[in-house]
Design a protein that fits this description.
By secondary structure, the chain is of the alpha+beta class. Helix content is 23%, strand content 14%. 30% of the residues are buried.
Length: 343
């Protein structure tokens, strides 16, 4: 199931790699590349001391056995062992035991990566420049919505002009960038593009509408509803795994989920693999259970828990150039209520 565009997929936070003079341990500590002297060094001290005593105080009974030790091959290595013993005796003896977890203030700064305690979604990647001015252009209508958790519109429907032939990655990036929101992109770029987390939405709490909460409780997810938490990320970001299982960002194009059949079968398509047409309505919506709470059946997740009215025509009419601006507030109330109709 594809998330950030369709079904939600969750990535463990420990999958991020940090750089520095040591390595970040998924267990929670930063391991420095410098390690204390190993037990082998201590054993060399014992061997060296045994060798010295055997050279200086041989017994008469063992004199016949000691004679072969005069062979250079037996005596020369002791000089190396002796030098190692001297260095191990002088340096480690003056050093305090090194902690496995140094003081965090002494760790090197990890440029380009979030702090370990920050919520991390999919790995970020370098996005290609948007190819404006290379040919024909089209206009699509896009919004970002959080009605499933009581937040309404994060970004109201707005026309976005993009180069013809662009994937949904292009208007998604343009709209978020234009509104000053940073985000975590899922996939590895190109056709894999999706959204796993959007920062700065002020969505650190959830107030699930009663009809959605009741629908979830009466579904196969009801037995797990006690795992729901109304508290989200302290930084106000919104993404995979927030509030409840299988939560995340999904999108529709003209009130359909690309790659998903009406009965919920299908694997879904990442936003980066969908090429919109002129006038398409794209709605990014936050889901708690990967689709059914948005009014769409999803294989493995269950049937839709209510009937979601199609608002695509209303969005085109209200937000096209020259539309009646005074009628928009009432239209927005209808659009954001999934069960309301334009009639």
């Amino acid at each position: 199931m594809v998330f950030g565009l369709m079904p939600v997929s969750v990535l463990a936070e420990d999958d991020v790699t940090y750089s520095g003079s040591g390595s970040y341990n998924s267990g929670g500590g930063y391991i420095d590349s410098d390690t204390p002297a190993s037990p082998e060094t201590e054993s060399s001290e014992v061997e060296s001391s045994d060798t010295e005593s055997s050279e200086t105080k041989p017994s008469e009974a063992d004199s016949s056995e000691m004679e072969p030790s005069e062979d250079p091959s037996d005596t020369e290595p002791s000089e190396t062992e002796s030098s190692e013993t001297e260095s191990s005796e002088t340096e480690p003896a003056e050093m305090e035991p090194e902690s496995e977890y140094p003081d965090p203030e002494e760790l090197p700064e990890l440029e380009g990566y979030p702090e370990p305690e920050e919520h991390i979604g999919f790995e970020l990647y370098n996005l290609a420049p948007i190819p404006f001015g290379t040919g024909d252009e089209i206009t699509v209508y896009m919004s970002f919505e959080g009605y499933t958790i009581g937040h309404g519109f994060f970004i109201e429907p707005i026309p976005v002009t993009i180069p013809a032939g662009s994937s949904l990655e292009v208007p998604t990036r343009l709209l978020l960038d234009n509104h000053g929101y940073t985000y975590n992109a899922s996939g590895t770029g190109g056709t894999d593009f999706g959204i796993s987390r959007i920062n700065g939405l002020n969505a650190n709490s959830a107030n699930v509408p009663a009809f959605i909460q009741n629908g979830i409780m009466n579904s196969t997810w009801g037995m797990l509803w006690d795992m729901f938490t109304p508290v989200g990320q302290s930084d106000g970001s919104l993404g995979n795994g927030d509030f409840f299982l299988f939560s995340g960002w999904m999108y529709t194009v003209n009130h359909e989920m690309p790659g998903i059949n009406p009965n919920g079968t299908g694997d879904g398509l990442a936003a980066g693999s969908v090429i919109p047409n002129d006038g398409d309505v794209i709605r990014w919506q936050f889901t708690l259970i990967a689709g059914p709470d948005l009014g769409f059946a999803m294989q493995g997740m269950g049937p839709a828990i209510y009937e979601h009215a199609d608002k695509s025509d209303l969005i085109r009419a209200m937000f096209a150039e020259g539309a009646n601006v005074e009628a928009r507030p009432a239209a927005l109330d209808v659009i954001i209520n999934p069960r309301a109709t334009a009639e």
